[in-house]
Amino acid sequence: MIVAHMEYTYPVDKDAEMRALVPDVDAFSRQFEGNEHFQLSFADDRPGVLLGVEVWRDAATLNAHVAVAHDAPELAAWHALTTGMSISLFTATPLDVAELRAGAAA
C-alpha cells in the first residue's frame, strides 16, 4: 500500500475557482483501479494551500494514475491553477485494529 501526502499551492485570489474544481478532481482520482482513498482539504490557516491524502493499493496503480492525470483534459483547469506541489510517499501494510491492540498489549 502506498500513502501519498500532498500539498498543493495556488494563487490566493483563485480560492473560489480551486474550491469549485475539487469535486471533479476527486471524482477523477477515485475512478482509478487501486485507489483506496482520496481526500482533499483546504487549510483554514494557510490561504492558497490545499492538502491531499491518497492511498493506493500498490506502486503500479499509483504510477498508472500519475501517467494519465498529468495530461488529462479533465484536469487542465486544475493544473492551470496549481502553482506548486510537494509530495511525500510512504509504504504501509494494512493492519487490523485488533492486531494493533494485541501488539500493544504484548
UniProtKB/TrEMBL annotation:
Domain ABM residues, every copy: 1-68
Database matches in SUPFAM superfamilies: Dimeric alpha+beta barrel (SSF54909)
Xref: InterPro entries: ABM_dom (IPR007138), Dimeric_a/b-barrel (IPR011008)
Coiled-coil annotated spans: none
UniProt protein name: ABM domain-containing protein
Organism of this sequence: Frondihabitans cladoniiphilus
